[in-house]
Amino acid sequence: MPELLKKDKTAKRRKDYQTDIDENLIEKRKNEIIGILILAFAALSAISIFTNTAGLVGRKMSEIYFSIFGYGSYVIPLILIVWAIALIRLKGLSINSRVIGFILFYISSLTLIHTYQYSKFPLESALIGQGGGIIAGSFSWVCLKLFGYIGSYVVLAAIILIGLLLWFDVFLISLFQYLKSSIRSIGKNFSLFLQRFKRKKSTDKKEREEPYHDLFEHDNNVYDLTEKE
């Protein structure tokens, strides 16, 4: 009896293991298919945005992109390609802090540009397809109403900075330390460049003066010989 139970447990484990393998294969195949479809959609989006050769569907896609995202439409194909590669290679794209950071940076940057260009009529200009589109126009309108013109720049700049920190997964103090070391490195390299430049200039000057010096010495020798004669 114990041997039968042991065999049943072993068989059940094998069955569960095989089921997990089958589910993983199905999930991987599904992600590959979705990734390929997204790649095709990204290619069609790029053709629609950058050219007029995608037919009626392409023209409609371009109109929708520019009405929603405005200038940000040019980045959409790249975003779709990254998403497709993540699906194919990483079995999915999870919503983590880096993705949230990119979204914050993307929308805030569009909103900042839209606010700079259409601060008087942000929503109206967005509705007719100008600037950063409906998304940026809506956020620009809200920021201008709540914080005013200068306050909007302050708030949007802060959100952009937060988005960058989340996107690249760095801390602000680490960024400051990196900038500090970069400035020191640039200053050191510039100082070395100046030293080499001065040294080279001094060497070139000596090389230019040597022929005249030799000629002067030769004339003096000739003069001495003439006097002796």
Describe what you observe in this structure.
With 229 residues, this protein is mainly α. The protein is built from 7 helices and no strands.
Q: What is the share of helical residues?
A: over 70%
Average pLDDT metric: 81
Task: Give the radius of gyration.
Answer: 34 Å
Assign an overall shape: extended
Count of strand segments: 0
Oligomer: single chain
Low-confidence runs (pLDDT<50, min 5 residues)? none
Biggest sheet record: none
| Count of helical stretches | 7
**What's the order of the H and E elements?**
HHHHHHH
Helix/sheet category: mainly alpha
How far apart the termini lie comes to 134 Å
Q: Hey, roughly how much beta strand do the residues contain?
A: under 5%
Defining key terms:
229 residues, mainly alpha, 7 helices, 86% helix
Briefly summarize what is shown:
This protein has 229 residues and is mostly helical. The protein has helices at residues 2-50, 55-69, 76-90, 97-117, 122-127, 133-167, 172-228.
Secondary structure layout:
Elements: H1 2-50, H2 55-69, H3 76-90, H4 97-117, H5 122-127, H6 133-167, H7 172-228
Helix pairs in contact: 1-2, 1-3, 2-6, 4-6
